[in-house]
Amino acid sequence: MSLHTVARSPSERGSRERNDVALWTVHGNGRHLLGDAVVTSEERLSWPLTFGLGVQHLFAMFGMTTLVPLVTGFPVTTTLLLSGVGTLLFVVVTRNRIPSYLGASAAFVVPLVVASETGGASPATLLGGIMVVGLVVTAVGVAVKALGVRLLESSMPPIVTGAVVLMIGLSLAPQSVASVDKQPVAAALTLGTVVLATVASRGLLARASVLLGVLIGWAYAAVTFQLDEARLTALRDAPWFGPPDLIAPQVHLSVVPYVLPLVIVLVAEHVGHLKAVAALTGRNLDGSVGDALIGGGLATTLSGSVGGSALSSYAANVGVMAATRVYSTAACVVAAGASVVLSFSPKLAALINTIPLGVLGGATLVLFGMLAMVGVRIWLDAGVDFVDPVNVAVLGTAIIAGVGDLTLSIGALRITGVVWGSVGIVLLYPLLRRLADARRSS
């Protein structure tokens, strides 16, 4: 995929000038991409297409964003509400430069469950821990913005951010494969549709490949009676309208040790997301790293303050953008608005929740794979030397630990592979790098 900017005709430049007061300028004629170009964050396609792209983002994040609060004991509709509001806040703080959808972070599941089961933490104190993590991430963003991006570059060079992106993408592979195994035919139908629409079609079908695949797989599962009966019952019983439940948080020091390591995970995920978008669009977004961390930190803090899960950039949504070549924040805003609407309609939320796991597995198998390849691309663009023993030993070990979900237990505290893998990459690599360089120079 070429990342070069395609020259615009006078009429297209006129279209940009006529829309310069709007948040987004129309890309080309609003229906087709210009040559090999991508739709940047400040651009959009026509509103019908943008709405369809937003729905794709909504479907991509919906499964995990509803599962995480269910497992950790938070109200699902509250997390949906804060997921949408948090995404809108992120777009505002980053000044419309970084396309991102913030969904419930799966990295918090194990620490919160352990804090609840072994430490006796209540939902209110768990929310207090989420708020603390959000505030620390915000503080890191403020420091980066004040002192410059070099503050992070020393510990998170391209080899580190590429490893984090690759590890996140690959670590989600077992989840996708397990979902595919539950309903292989529906998953294969969804997967095949997404791949064919992405590779072999042009225009509208290529832009809506994920949405098309999910709808076809969903319809097949419905006519073959493969929809989950419990979810269908929940759909029938759910009211059309109802406000989300709000919970007041309580900050308790006993919960902090369980969640504080997740600060590094959220920082790595936000920076990795930014680097992935930069690599795919050919734009230098280093100047927005501080804003991204502030926006993500504030979104998590706000979510924890009223009963929502911790929020982070979603791998599946990066995959949607990579598949469609549309990086418009307008699509993220549409998805955020739809999430807010769903949070006030348990009936609609329950309807989307009937999408079978096999269908989601087929779609995410493509999306997570695309994200993993973005990590490889970051390495290639940076010319990473894989003959260097530091690179091979540290990054290889951390990635395998993350993908294999190697869990470490320290007393009652259990640290999953993605968590300690991210911490290991970010903290350990710079130290060993300096040690190796010092030995070579001596």
From TrEMBL:
GO MF annotation, one: xanthine transmembrane transporter activity
Subcellular location: Membrane
Transmembrane segments: 58-91, 98-114, 126-147, 159-178, 184-201, 208-227, 247-268, 289-314, 326-345, 357-380, 412-432
UniProt topology in membrane: Multi-pass membrane protein
Any Gene Ontology CC annotation: plasma membrane
Keywords: Membrane, Transmembrane, Transmembrane helix, Transport
Main localization, broad class: membrane
Domain of life: Bacteria
Similarity-based family: Belongs to the nucleobase:cation symporter-2 (NCS2) (TC 2.A.40) family.
Protein's name according to its UniProt entry: Xanthine/uracil permease
Species, as recorded: Saccharopolyspora erythraea (strain ATCC 11635 / DSM 40517 / JCM 4748 / NBRC 13426 / NCIMB 8594 / NRRL 2338)
Higher taxonomy: Bacteria, Bacillati, Actinomycetota, Actinomycetes, Pseudonocardiales
Gene this protein is translated from: ycdG
